[in-house]
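User: My instructor asked us to take a sequence, write out its structure as tokens, and then describe one feature of it. I'm not sure where to start. Here is the sequence I was given:
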Amino acid sequence: MPDIAPADSFNLPSIELEMRIEAAKRLAARKDILGWGRIVFPNKFNLPFCPDLHNFIVENRSEPFLCLEAPRSHSKTTIKCFLIPIFMALNEYNNPYEDHDFFLSVQATETKALAINTSLRYEFETNDVIQAIYGDMVGSEKWMDSLFVLKNGIAFSAISAGQSMRGLQFHNRRPDYINVDDLYDEDDIRNPISTESKNAWFFGSLFPARSRTKKSCVHIQGTAINQNDLLFRLRSDKRFIHKSFRSVL
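Assistant: Let's start with the prediction itself. The structure tokens for your sequence are:
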């Protein structure tokens, strides 16, 4: 079989399921996460990728601490909170003592948080390419909107900003891959009190809740809203890799 063409060159509607399955296998083997996503989830990735932004997200997916500033409407949530966790769970999980097995998505509101987890769960339930390559991944222990567990033991949970961290542990496991996405909403833009409240929750509750027994990741991304938000404050935190992207028309 010839080498797979770049992701943006596929005419997806004309590709039969068998061809998509073979293409996905080859793309996964060479860690082409964006190409893999284009093949496995054609309805979600039907526009050209933003190479600088999206490649940066993929290449730094395993950094312990990452802070990313990027404009809205550039698919950063879909790639960071949807594509990368699914890819890592299916293709980069070999050792439960070393590899990530508890993904936590944090959003500004409960509605947004549950929407992320629901979309993840739906793909494991219905995606033909995933089922053909990886088998039935639907677990029998927990399968809810806020928390579901795959057959291989990997857990996916979702919470909103400010939510209590009690009960977040699963089988004495703490989250080892935390995605904090657009922590602030419109109500916080001109409200330094609510901004500081979310900052205090991040440093006082969420950040200490990460796994300490294995390598863990805490990644925060979004669009800066004011000079009190975390995207500004973490610029001076030497633990975090910080990167800013501007909108390109």
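For the description part of your assignment, you could build on this observation: The longest strand covers residues 102-107. Try explaining in your own words what that tells you about the chain.
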